[in-house]
Amino acid sequence: MDGEPMSKRITIEGVAGQRLDRLVAEALPGTSRRQAKRWIDGRRVWVNGRVEIMASRVLRGGERVEVEPEAPPEPAEPPEIPVVWEDDRLLAVNKPPGIPSGPTRDPRRNHVEGVLAARRGSPLVLVHRLDLDTTGALLLAKTPEAGAGLARLFRERRVEKTYLALVEGEPPGRFHVISHLREGQGRVHVVRAGGLRAETRFETLARGSGVALVAARPRTGRMHQIRVHLAREGFPILGDPVYGGPSRVGDLTVHRQMLHALALRFPHPATGEPLRIVAPPPEDFRAAARRLLGPAAWRRALARALGEPGPG
Fold first, then answer.
1. Rounded to the nearest 5 degrees, what angle is found at the Cα of 62, between the Cα atoms of 58 and 64?
2. Structurally, what CATH architecture does the domain formed by 83-305 represent?
3. Positions of CATH 3.30.2350.10 in the chain
């Protein structure tokens, strides 16, 4: 039985043509689409008085949508955020999954910039971002001057970025994607007119059964750029359902998008010294790569991505 309405339900009017999960996320401040889907899966959303469990349901408009949000959890203890390099002006860390790079709409939510500033007792300047579940090399500045210098390097495209992605399919050895991207309704779309130019070069490093490890080297820094470009080419990232990536490969469950910011190369904004920052992939990424590609192929691929001699 669907049961009687409960006291804490919030009522929303359906919008024609909109997916149910997007409606819930956009109507309730601080709610992500992932959280909205969790509520739908957990039978906490009703449409016209009946429980609805299809997050992808497209509304006709005018429906009575009721949501019974879960009580917000107490703020979690911030995760460890390993420092991979620093000097008196810059700080580079290996961002873990599940924590935003910077502030979000929820002021209680931990984020890398805030956690590090609190632990160090001094403000930091965040000059670029990684997606919530993307891991890897993230740069922050310790002074406004250093922040302005880093921002200039990113703007002038003098920061070389290398990402690793585990993808579905059989990509070619090398491929190059140029498109225009526009954000809308919680995701990013490839558009023919308007939008922002986005460019990424890809290299396939290793292959498994229906999967591959690719290196992505974005020339521009658009939101979700690598994820969208890979999905558009037919090779979605494992664990990225927003862009069609599977959450299971055989008997392996993938709990998040397998995208890691491996390395950054750039001149120091104050001294001009060439810098190379490397952030080792986290254990869940390494374990998935070993399982899907084989341990030896994974080691060779990682060395190749870093431009190092492969193991014998």
1. 90
2. 2-Layer Sandwich (3.30)
3. 83-305
Architecture of domain 10-67: Roll (3.10)
Span(s) in the chain for CATH 3.10.290.10:
10-67
* Annotated catalytic residue 131: yes
pLDDT tens across the length of the chain (312 residues): 344 334 478 999 999 999 999 999 888 877 888 888 889 988 999 999 999 999 999 999 999 999 998 876 666 688 899 999 999 999 999 999 999 999 988 888 899 999 999 999 999 999 999 999 999 999 999 999 999 999 999 999 999 999 999 999 999 999 999 999 999 877 899 999 889 999 999 999 999 999 999 999 999 999 999 999 999 999 999 999 999 999 999 999 999 999 999 999 999 999 999 999 999 999 999 999 999 999 999 999 999 999 876 554
Out of 131, 133, 240, 284, which one is annotated catalytic?
131
pTM of the predicted model as reported, rounded to 2 decimal places: 0.78
H, E, C per residue of the chain = CCCCCCCCCEEEECCCCCEHHHHHHHHCCCCCHHHHHHHHHCCCEEECCEECCCCCCECCCCCEEEECCCCCCCCCCCCCCCEEEECCCEEEEEECCCCCCCCCCCCCCCCHHHHHHHHHCCCCEECCCCCCCCEEEEEEECCHHHHHHHHHHHHCCCCEEEEEEEEECCCCCEEEEEEEEEEECCEEEEECCCCEEEEEEEEEEEECCCEEEEEEEECCCCCCHHHHHHHHCCCCECCCHHHCCCCEECCEECCCCCEEEEEEEEECCCCCCEEEEECCCCHHHHHHHHHHHCHHHHHHHHHHHCCCCCCC
